[in-house]
Structure formats: structure tokens, C-alpha cells
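Aim 2 progress. For LacI family transcriptional regulator, the working sequence is reproduced below.
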Amino acid sequence: MNRGPTMVDVAEAASVSLKTVSRYINGATNIDPKLAERIREAVLALGYRRNLAAASIRPGWTSRMLGLIIGDLGNPYYSTLARGVEREVHERGYLLTTASSDENGQRHDELIDRMLEQRVDGLIIVPPYTGGRPWNELRPPLPPRVLVDRPAPEGDGYSVLADNARGAASATEVLLAEGATRIAFVGDSELISTMAERRQGYEEALLAAGLEVDLSLVDHGVHTDEQAAGAVQRLLDDHGADAIFAANNRAAIGALRAFRARGARVPLVGFDDFESAELTSPPTTVVSHDIAHMGAVAAGTLLTLLDGGVPAEQTTVLPVTLQRRGSELRVQ
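Predicted C-alpha cells for this construct:
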């Protein structure tokens, strides 16, 4: 079996020392530009690739790899988040490995273990709502980590979040201003901290308007847009809802499907923007934060930690904005 080219081969081809090649391969920047160019040309000509398995046992070695664990690869929200992370870390020369926990604590723990085995330099994690192993139960040394979209269940570490309660309150206030008095809440499990915060904001807005919270108008068991469509149908037919607050993008899409099936709609405001929101009739009003920016901020926080710095904030809370497009209006 033919062996691949080694650093010795690269050193001979570039007419430099093995030590200089080693420093170049491991990212040193204080190498004479002419020598660095000769090494680069030799690497390309020979097709050299460094042996990560062998390199990873050396003290001070860095993989230049980061791990991202999200909740659901099929949800456009997380693909946008991942894109924001990847753009930020790519500029710093890191490769991003992304995987989905499917909101399952056991799978989340397995992914953590696999990424630690791969010697990632750092992790960005969306904690699963079913829980996972506490970070402090893992054997050190551990790489830096940043939580995104949701805080850590144990409440420690750095995190980047959205102002969920304020956003939900503003969505509910818009519907109240349109004259709605029976606003339904449709969302995913309240074991997800973002959902609990959004319901809190919804209820606070109702109470501030002098309305009681009617639990028959709350459905927090929908995970797919099909489930959301069924929930909205029930809320309209059986409980007299006169407006819908959809607490995530899939709930909003489900509401739109229910409206189409009925041939009629009620005022709707969603939380989290989605790609086709501006293509619906009328376009869908949402409260949302910049999801890609959230990913970039999480990545920047992790890079600061990797550089030995201290991020400015333990918890970064990003503002949300209301994007009025017409679906919040009453049917004339």
C-alpha cells in the first residue's frame, strides 16, 4: 500500500526544515512569506494532508474544528442559525461540524461525547427540551461552550438569547389593538424555555388589557405544522378564537394551512420569521430577531473564549422587532 506524503516529503520539496513545515501546518503566522509560499506550493503539489489522529495527542494541539448541536435540522430556523455561525467561524479558519439532537437528551449527550472524541476546540449548543447530562458531570478538560437560543438548564455558562417574553407581548398587543378578545396561543412544548417565555409574554399582555387567561385557548403541544393546523382548527371551531398568536414558525405555517382549509382566516401574528411569510395572502406579520445574527453573536462569543478573552456579557439578550405585513388585521 502506498503511503501518503509526509511532512518530511514537504520539507524536502520546499527545501526548508521539518520544524518550519510543522509550524506552517499548525497555523504559525510568523514564518518568512517566501518560505511559507514554498511550503504551500509543496503541500499542493504533493497532496499532503496532516494526520489529525497523530497530531491530536500533542500538547497544545488545536483541531481548528468547532461543534454546533441544534434542535432540528429540518427546521429552517436552525439552518439559518447554523449559517450565521458558520460564516463567522469560517473567517477565522475553523471548520464547523453541525448535528441535530432532535430535542432528545440522550442523543444530545451522545453527540457531545462524539464531538469531544473528535477534539473540537469549542461547542455551540441549543439545549434539548428533554434535558441532557449536566455539563459539570463531564470529565475535564472540556472545551469552551456557548448556549444559543435557550439557556443552560443548570443556569451557568455563556448564552445568547432572544427577548421572547417582550416579543410575545408585542404580538399579543397588536392583536388586541385590532379588537380581538379571544386570542389563541399555539406553540410547542413548554418544556422548551423559549415557549414558556413566549407564553408568559402572551399572558402578561392579556392581563394588562384587563382580560383573563382562558386555558381553553392555549395549545402548547404542537411540534409540526400539521399538528398546528389541527390545533388551530379546534381553537376556531370549538373555542371561538378570534385571533391566533403562533409562537413559532411551524405554528404560523400550520395556522395558514388551517385558514386555507376553512376558506377563511382570522388575524394572525407569528413568532420567528420564515421564508414564505411575505408570499402569503395577506403577508404574515411576525415578531422576530435576526436569527443569523444570533448565530454570529454566539460564534463571536465562543471565539472570544478561545482567544483567552472574557465576553462582555454572560447572557446576551437580542431584541425582537415587529414586522407588520397585514395578517394582523381583521377581515373587513
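Residues 193-208 form the longest helix (16 residues). This observation will guide construct design in the next reporting period.
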